[in-house]
Design brief:
The chain is an alpha/beta fold and about 350 residues long. The chain is built from eleven helices and ten strands.
Length: about 350
């Protein structure tokens, strides 16, 4: 089954062709980062207009790269939420247009479920249950995955998302937007032990808090404006990675996870990837860390998830809209691991 996936929930316009939920035939991503950089964050109106301008081209490129035409498609999917309302509408409308024109089913996909599926998109045989750390610009959560559509949220942030903390700290250090990749690069030149930033909520359940850490960086910069920016970046990153890794460890223990997974944009962070690899080695678990292009927003994860949802739930009705505040569906499978 050939599925075209479309993703426009934030500032990436993406389309991908995935066969049978596992084989990526193409994955095209057009980033709007440059359009938003001067504002220091994503401007919703600019995002939806930019999606609208490029969506047809991105879809066309995904088909060409996959070596197929519209006539070869068996289904079409788009992210229906969570995300920016106007941005989501562009992808949802484009997908419905393709569904109508080609007489194929349309599937509205949950973006968070997409990130979870990215993990086993290329590794369908992975050992369950998974302890998944989902860290992006909009979300930070720990999820137990017992199987397709069997999710349980173990913990989440009570304030800022981890990616948001990277973006805000980069802004206050004058490093530009988006902050994650810049801090990741700069941290390699700095001393991660130069400043001992707090590790918020470590040892205190599976929820996260990052707004205090961001404030600690602000105070540090005010106290010592001449400190090396690379040292501040490296020390901040070390604090975030330490918290994320220790909470993932605690979550894995709580559900007796076989496999550790990291997903979402922050999973592209090189220090976090190395730290989770080390944790897996230390605890005798497998680590599944998708390539960076499957961690950040992409449409392959949407097409893959759609394949599963079509099999379990059938097509979505065409009058189904976009849902900006859509939550991850949870199944209450607390005991399914045993
Ligand atoms: O998943 P994503 O592409 O979009 C959302 O759904 O939010 O995540 C974007 C977030 C941004 O906050 C960005 O700064 C962060 O992921 N990010 C990183 C890295 N690459 C992207 N954070 C830390 N290190 C990175 N290398
Ligand atoms: Zn995302």
């Amino acid at each position: 089954m050939i599925v075209l996936g479309i993703e426009t929930s934030c500032d990436e316009t993406a389309a991908a062709v995935v066969v049978d939920g596992t084989l990526i035939r193409s994955s095209v991503i057009s980033s709007q980062v440059e359009l938003h950089a001067r504002y220091g964050g994503v401007v919703p109106e600019i995002a939806s207009r930019a999606h609208l301008e490029i969506i047809n081209q991105v879809i066309g490129d995904a088909l060409v790269e996959a070596g197929i035409t519209f006539a070869d498609l068996d289904a079409v999917a788009a992210t229906r939420g969570p995300g920016l309302a106007g941005a989501l509408l562009v992808g949802v409308s484009a997908a419905k247009a393709v569904a109508l024109a080609c007489c194929i089913p349309y599937i509205g996909v949950n973006h968070l479920e997409g990130h979870l599926h990215a993990a086993w998109l290329q590794n369908p045989g992975v050992e369950l249950p998974l302890a998944v750390l989902l860290v992006s610009g909009g979300h930070t959560m720990l999820v137990a995955v017992y199987g397709d559509a069997q999710y349980r949220i173990l913990g989440q942030t009570v304030d800022d998302a981890a990616g948001e903390a990277f973006d805000k700290v980069a802004r206050l250090l004058g490093l530009g937007y988006p902050g994650g990749p810049v801090i990741d690069r700069l941290a390699r030149e700095g001393n991660a032990r130069a400043i001992r930033f707090p590790r918020p909520m470590v040892g205190d359940g599976l929820d996260f808090s990052f707004s205090g850490l961001k404030t600690a960086v602000l105070h540090q910069v005010r106290r010592d404006p001449d400190a090396s920016v690379a040292d501040v970046a490296a020390s901040f990153q070390a604090a975030v990675v330490d918290v994320l890794t220790r909470k993932l460890d605690a979550a894995a223990d709580a559900i007796d996870a076989r496999t550790l997974v990291v997903g979402g944009g922050v999973a592209a962070n090189s220090a976090l990837r190395a730290s989770v690899d080390q944790l897996a080695a230390d605890t005798g678990r497998a680590a599944l860390i998708p390539p960076a292009e499957l961690c950040t927003d992409n449409a392959a994860m949407i097409a893959a998830t759609a394949w599963w949802r079509l099999r379990s739930d059938g097509p979505s009705p065409l009058d189904d809209g976009a849902f900006p505040s859509l939550k991850l569906p949870t199944s209450g499978t607390d005991t399914a691991a045993h």
